[in-house]
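Intended use. Records like the one below are meant for learning the mapping from a protein sequence to its folded structure. Do not use them to infer anything beyond what is encoded.
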Amino acid sequence: MRKDYISWDQYFMGVAKLSSLRSKDPSTQVGACIINPDKRIVGIGYNGLPRGCSDETFPWASEGEFVDTKYPYVVHAEANAILNATTNLKGSSIYVTLFPCNECTKLIIQSGIKEIVFESDKYKDSKEHKAAIKMLDASGVKYRQIEVGELSYVKTN
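Structure written out for the chain above:
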C-alpha cells in the first residue's frame, strides 16, 4: 500500500487552492471548498464578480473612491461556495485559503457550517477578524488553521 498519499485536509485545501486560480482579482485570490460530513464536496467558490458583471468593465483596484474599487462588487469565495452548494450545509466544513471576513462568517454560521479550515490568516489584526472570531466563538463554529504549502504531485512507483 502507498504511504505517501495526501491527507483529507491537503486534498480539500488543494481543491480550494485550485478554485482560487479562477479569480481575476490581481491582488488576492481566494478559494473555498465545502464538504459534507461524509467527505463529499458539496460547494466550491472563488472571489469574483456577480454573474453578468463584466470582469473587464468593473474595477479591480484596492484603493481610491469606494465605487471605483473592487470592494462593493466582489462576491467572496465563501459566499460563492455557499450559493453554489448542491445540498443543505448543516454540519458541513468549509476549507478556505484565507480566514473569512466578518460578513462571510455570518453566512457560514447561518448556513449551518460547523467547521472552518483555513490556511492564511493575514488579516488577523483587523477589526473584521476580531468580529468574526467573536461570532464563531459565540455560535460554536470551530475553526482551525492548517499549513498545506505546495502540494507535490510527483508520481511514485
